[in-house]
Amino acid sequence: MLISKKPIHFIVALLVAFMPLISHANPSIDSTAVEANSVVHSDEASHDEGHAKPTDIKSQINAFKNHHVLDSHDMTFFSDYEEGKHYGFSLPIILWDNGVQFFSSSKFNHGESVAESNGNYYVINHHDGKIYKTDVSGTITEDEKTGFPANERPLDFSITKNVMFIIAISFLMFFLFTSLARSYAKNGSIAKGPGRIFEPLVMFIRDDIAIPNIGVKNYKRYMSFLLTVFFFILFLNLIGLTPLGANVTGNLTITFALAFITFLITNLSANKNYWGHIFWMPGVPKLMRIVLAPIELLGVFIKPFSLMIRLYANIFAGHIVLMSIIGLIFIFKSWIGSSLSFGLSFILAILEILVAFLQAYIFTMLAALYFGSASEEHHHEEQHV
């Protein structure tokens, strides 16, 4: 059987079930809030309103860029600034504030209105995109010392745009790979249907990532996680290149969650040999062991941190650069400049597809390396000094 019958079930469950909850810690920037903040207000009155619409082309491009790369409490496909209309659909708001407060994000009117629920009033702050409790006027007071809002913040478990795509990809992966597994069972380990497309990738992860880095003896323990994290990152990377406006893997809290789960698997499944090499490294003088121990222990935390930053920075920066080059088409307004921008953006979009596969591969490869070092058996030739 290609896929192990003894996967790390609790880790896969954490990845699928708790990822949406972890992502709620991310500042959910409402698209209209970002658009309003991209405009330089001409006087104090317009600043107090805080909902000015982008009027010049550069401000509109910045609004579209921010709308694409940042999370939000609604799904907006595009906006008509002349008529002040937004085309999309609302998402559910779930707050814990003296009980569960459940209502639609349409009450915020894309960040322009105060939402009321069971006598409580809430508003989306235009600076950090978070939901704060307020009064009927929607006033947000700032702390004089810190400059941050002093209003109370309810616990936010809302289904944001990123969470919606995480749930959608989770269901897609579940149905896609359960059908692949069933086709193996029915057709003598021969894939049929859509599974034929993904079978080479599954075999690649097994034969070229898991077995060489973890070993034949232990690789099956980690195969389920490696397959899940590879296709999870890959599918989300590819969706991020579409006009849907999803930038899930360019979200720091999402990459933190993936890296944290990798950190847990590595250290919870590690054997005595792994910890022995960290705290009392064999083969070196005892005095050097004392010096190396804190350095090796620091490396335990640096490794998942590098996983988190690498994936986030590459995806986020790629989206910003691509959107900026596309925006130049509308700024130049000439056949020479627009043609050059279109050609450059087309080439960059192709490179971004390569980056989508590459970042999924790198994350999976490094995770397999960490798992391999954690499960590596003790070599008898290593003797204590």
Note the topology.
Elements: H1 9-22, H2 31-37, H3 44-49, H4 57-69, E1 74-80, E2 85-90, E3 92-96, E4 100-104, E5 115-117, E6 120-124, E7 131-134, E8 155-156, H5 161-186, H6 195-214, H7 219-239, H8 252-268, H9 272-279, H10 286-332, H11 335-375
Antiparallel strand pairs: 1-2, 3-4, 3-8, 5-6, 6-7
Helix pairs in contact: 1-5, 1-7, 1-8, 2-4, 4-10, 5-7, 6-7, 6-11, 7-11, 8-10, 8-11, 10-11
Please name the defining characteristics of this protein.
single chain; 385 residues; mainly alpha; 2 domains; 3-stranded antiparallel beta sheet; 8 strands; 10% strand; globular; disordered N terminus; disordered C terminus
Structure characterization notes:
This protein has helices at residues 9-22, 31-37, 44-49, 57-69, 161-186, 195-214, 219-239, 252-268, 272-279, 286-332, 335-375, and strands at 74-80, 85-90, 92-96, 100-104, 115-117, 120-124, 131-134, 155-156. It has 385 residues and is mostly helical. The chain folds into two domains: 9-21 and 162-375, no CATH class; 27-159, no CATH class. A three-stranded antiparallel β-sheet has the order 4-3-8, with no helix packed on it. Strands 5-6-7 form a three-stranded antiparallel β-sheet, with no helix packed on it. Strands 1-2 form a two-stranded antiparallel ribbon. The longest helix is centred in the last third of the chain and has 47 residues, at 286-332. It is globular, with a radius of gyration of 25 Å. The model is unreliable at 1-52 and 381-385 (pLDDT under 50).
